[in-house]
């Protein structure tokens, strides 16, 4: 344990993560519906044990910092995320370590005994890593800035709710969808849907992106 402590301290002080630690194998877990549809599988990353232990140490530091700042409420561009860390007052050591950790991680897909080639992860964090949910929280912390309706966020699921009984309410919903579309946290056009509630609901259709 003492040796690991020395190694982790070294990683932190030089603000550099070994390339082998940034490599992950992605296993694909079936979620629901038709198995032949690749969109119905969830990629879960298997990372090195030493890397995940270091992530856990950083995670505890991040949570303490964000709780003190009262910021927390669980594919984001790395440069925007690091700039948000700096704006939230993270010290230079931590911000630079996370910047390096996000810089050039590689991943390959594994299905049974077959493996794909290594590919660079250019945005977001491979699913299954320790720091992923916490960093995503920070990234979406100001997502509801300027939103007129109610925006509910849970992990990477987002719901926009509004009263559409009058024209003003329907327009407000569409304006919020337009705001979300131009922001850094764009909604996924394929994995979206509309739910109309109420017997007298006019069941208007709303536009997301260029639909």
UniProtKB/TrEMBL annotation:
InterPro entries: RT_dom (IPR000477). Residues 77-158 form the Reverse transcriptase domain. Pfam families: RVT_1. This is Mitochondrial enolase superfamily member 1.
């Amino acid at each position: 344990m003492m040796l690991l402590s020395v190694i982790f301290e070294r990683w932190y002080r030089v603000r550099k993560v070994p390339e082998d630690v940034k490599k992950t194998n992605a296993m694909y877990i079936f979620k629901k519906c038709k198995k032949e549809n690749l969109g119905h599988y969830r990629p879960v990353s298997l990372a090195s044990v030493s890397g995940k232990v270091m992530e856990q140490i950083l995670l505890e530091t991040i949570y303490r910092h964000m709780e003190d700042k009262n910021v927390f409420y669980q594919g984001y561009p790395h440069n925007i995320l690091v700039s948000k860390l700096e704006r939230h007052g993270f010290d230079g050591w931590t911000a630079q370590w996370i910047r390096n950790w996000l810089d050039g991680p590689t991943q390959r897909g594994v299905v049974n005994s077959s493996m794909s080639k290594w590919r660079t992860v250019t945005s977001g964090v491979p699913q299954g890593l320790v720091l992923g949910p916490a960093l995503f929280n920070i990234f979406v912390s100001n997502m509801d800035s300027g939103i007129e309706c109610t925006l509910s966020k849970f992990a990477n699921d987002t719901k926009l709710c509004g009263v559409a009984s009058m024209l003003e309410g329907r327009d407000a919903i569409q304006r919020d969808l337009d705001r979300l579309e131009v922001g850094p946290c764009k909604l996924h056009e394929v994995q979206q849907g509309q739910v109309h509630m109420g017997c007298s609901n006019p069941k208007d259709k709303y536009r997301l992106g260029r639909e």
